[in-house]
Write a structure and sequence with these properties.
With about 325 residues, the chain is α/β, with parallel strands linked by helices. The protein is built from twelve helices and twelve strands.
């Protein structure tokens, strides 16, 4: 089946349980999404087709993919064969023009374009929303998993360890910060204003701080966080491994925070006025730091880091010892 992914890193991470549910029910997944999705999902083993920008090109891509899958499976066109995770009208229009039998959420005036339109239930976390859409597609009822368990390959960990070793940093003994949060949600700010002061204080206390900026964030990382070790040009695949190897991750409401939670990193997730019930990172290793009104203070976040790092260092040492033991 074809699955159209969302256009954001966090949403794609939160859709992983739904994708695995579909795969577990016998579907081979052909994913269509942004170029970065290939790297993000590299260890999962799924095929990701990079979605072009123009309508004509998008429809041509889907038609060709449909033709290829129909040649493999003569029954491909006889059933629902596409699931749309985006809510947009354009996603449904692309699928319809390509001759696909798509299902997705109702809304945006697009139900007539879909083979079946499913209700978008209010008051749910986004992961639950994607999970229930997959359940509706399959005609089943099931509870979502407690953790996402995004895959990280050993090859990705090897690359991450090499990047850290080049900077003299040991796994489990550094703080990885994710301070950038592009845009706003419902006109509310998503970035903790005390992040630069927090990093200066960590540095003064002798903590190693690592930042992995995206292509558009390099200058901001250089200007705002000169005390942090900057790792530029890192793919999302290796970034996932770096998050997993961190002693603790401190993040705004941003895609890498969802990545951190999904790989089981110890995450301190800082939230301001935006309601986290729908978008908070999902998993048992997440600590949500939120104060209303306003923001959590630097002292509280620094205290949480101090508590997390000794535990993380011991866990990293135990993991290293286990890896070195003869089998």
């Amino acid at each position: 089946m074809i699955v159209r992914l969302r256009n954001f890193v966090g949403d794609t991470v939160l859709s992983l349980p739904a994708l695995r549910l579909l795969q577990g029910r016998g579907y081979r997944l052909e994913l269509v999404g942004k170029g970065w999705a290939r790297s993000l999902l590299e260890a999962e083993g799924w095929t990701v087709h990079v979605r072009p920008d123009g309508l004509r090109e998008r429809v041509a891509q889907l038609r060709e993919l449909r033709r290829h899958l129909l040649a493999e499976d003569p029954g491909f066109d006889a059933r629902s064969n596409t699931l749309l995770l985006p809510y947009a009208f354009s996603a449904a229009l692309d699928a319809r023009l390509a001759g696909l039998r798509a299902e997705g959420h109702a809304g945006e005036g697009r139900s007539w374009l879909l083979r079946r339109a499913h209700p978008r239930r209010e008051g749910q976390h986004t992961l639950e929303e994607y999970w229930e859409l997959a359940c509706d597609f399959l005609g089943i009822s099931a509870e979502p998993p407690e953790s996402i368990g995004k895959q990280v390959s050993e090859a990705q960990r090897v690359q991450a360890r090499a990047l850290l070793a080049a900077q003299g940093i040991e796994p489990g003994r550094f703080v990885l910060i994710c301070p950038f949060a592009n845009g706003r949600v419902e006109f509310l700010e998503r970035s903790w204003p005390a992040f630069p002061d927090f990093v200066r204080r960590l540095h003064a206390a002798g903590r190693r701080v690592v930042i992995v900026p995206g292509p558009a964030e390099v200058q901001g990382a250089r200007d705002l966080y000169p005390d942090a070790t900057r790792l530029d040009g890192v793919t999302l695949a290796v970034y996932s491994a770096l998050l997993q190897l961190a002693g603790v991750v401190v993040a705004n409401d941003t895609g890498p925070a969802h990545m951190a939670a999904s790989v089981g990193a110890r995450l301190l997730s800082i939230w301001g006025p935006v309601d986290p019930d729908r978008w908070a990172p999902w998993g048992s290793t997440v600590t949500l730091l939120r104060r209303q009104p306003g923001w959590v203070g630097v002292d509280e976040v620094q205290s949480a880091v101090d508590q997390a790092l000794p535990w993380a260092a011991m866990a990293a040492a135990a993991l290293a010892a286990a890896s070195a033991s003869p089998r």
